[in-house]
Amino acid sequence: MKKFAILSVVIFLAIIGFFATNISSQQKNDLTNAFNESIALEGQGKLKEAAALLEPFAEPYKDNYLLQLRLGYLYYLTDNNEKSIKHYELAVKLQPSSVEALLGLRLPYAKSNNWAKAEELYNKVLKLDPNNREANLRLGQIYYYNGLAVFEKGFDKAKPLWEKSKNYLNKIISLYPSDYEANLSYGYTMYALGFNDVAKKHFNAVLMMNKEDSLAVKGLNLIK
Length: 224
Known about the structure:
With 224 residues, this protein is mainly α.
């Protein structure tokens, strides 16, 4: 009788384990299906629906990096910066060395004009990936515009900021000489620093790729 009771308990636990495994497997399948459907909805331009489909999984799967990263991105696209930051921060917490998560997190901060936070995140990216194109390019642009903001107080105030801009942009130009946006930004930074010949070279490089680029044309006209 005792052996029967023990056997019954073992069988009962085995059955419970079987169903628990099946339920867990089913939940994972549901998330996989929802994730794929969310991508399809995004492709149709149904961004809010794509986010809403995944939201019920956010808490049960709060340790799922891909899910948190995608929700951060979808909420950014739908202008819900608060939720976007929440999910991107979870993704960064799950994968602290993820450059893509850090660059994702800067998106809602940049959209809300929190440039100090965006700059902080770009610097974190560069600690992980010193030659990162996006971080170097955006920091170069940030320092260029920061220089413009203080230029009315004198060239001496703006010059250190433009020098920083030059250093970041020069790294991109060295690695990707044909980079369209880097050439344009570098042209304006070098013009601001008084290197007109260098600026002209990079504005002309932009026009080689798009002869109707109005900003490159404007830059050349400034030199003339």
